[in-house]
Amino acid sequence: MTMAPQQLATREIGGEAISATALPHFASLDAIRGLAAVMVVANHIPFTNPTIGWTVFRSAGRALDIFFVLSGFVIFYAYQSKLSSLVSARRFIWLRFWRVYPLHFVFLLVFLLFDVLKLIGERHGLSAYNPAFVADTPAAFLANLFLIQGMDGVHALTFNLRAWTISVEFYTYLVFVAACLACQKFKPMFVLLCGAIFVSAYGFLFWVAPGGFEGMINGMGFVRCLTGFFLGGLTFLLYQKIRRTHWIGTLCATGWPAFAVTALLLAYICLTPLGPADFAAYPIVALFMLIVLLSPGAMVSRLLMSRAPQWLGETSYSIYMTHGAVLWLITMLLRFGFHVPSAATPDGAFELMSPWAGSAAAVVAIIASLMASRLVYLHIEKPVRDWSRRTKFRSAQPAVLPG
What we know:
Elements: E1 11-13, E2 16-18, H1 27-44, H2 55-58, H3 63-79, H4 86-122, H5 138-145, H6 164-182, H7 187-208, H8 221-242, H9 246-253, H10 256-271, H11 281-294, H12 299-304, H13 307-337, E3 343-344, E4 350-351, H14 355-390
Antiparallel strand pairs: 1-2, 3-4
Helix pairs in contact: 1-3, 1-13, 3-8, 3-11, 4-6, 4-13, 4-14, 6-8, 7-8, 8-11, 10-11, 13-14
């Protein structure tokens, strides 16, 4: 398979020093996550340019559902067989909290500072397109602080607008833990429970939003996450079941299944507009992941393992959480630093005098977002993640989990 083994440092859990080796790592999935993160950045570029109407960018919101499916696959792979007690559940929640919350908290403070700057600017006759502290209310700040902004049906799109996915995913982790603990002694029941959660969530989405996912964030983001996460988990269980099947290995070794599913995914991303086709994102992404992992020698697998996609994959979470702040800063710099003539369009874009000027600003914004994200990864995300893995837990019973 497309894996790169890695080592974890010795850690003490349950009062015992335990040397743990990490599970093999699906590096190709990291690359998919990184490319999806770049799609999200491109979708959020606020400058009008010749590509702004392209389907591939307008439908990039589906990348969020790609994240959910990927997350489910990876979390099931790393933890599903390890969550057998309250001790291991506590360790899992600890690791996931410190994996997602620190960057969320940092950028919550960053966007709070932006609101303060907007308020100061308004008092001096300078106004951003979104007034200070209108959406970003004290209640919204508290919802973000306690990571419930994606769950309360009101405050999802406040402060760092992208962080609603972190909120709903964290509570999806808790559903996953509950499922593991409830069915720890009877695996078939666990599979049935996960299948029931997926089918129920997917069916509910069909029922409440048959026209597609656009705008389905406040109150419905959690259902989207449950759908993608548990489909990703079921995809892992299927992969685990069939990965050593001879005829499947022989077929995938030809490279044709990987070619076909890659063509399907690209056609879906590039050609299908937002709408009812949104529902196809889940099965298409799940199928793509499954075939790619079963075809380590295929061209698409080798491309995903190359340096640039791997770099994006490693930095993907920082890219996702950082780019909104970078885009805001560039927008304000153009407006008030360089006094570039501009206007807000009805869809929220930032219209420069020329679409080619917008294109240049978009390229600069993407490069700046990637550079800033790398710094955030190296100096905030990675150090905190490594610290959380090294933290010693003392308990009556030992447990070992990969970080």
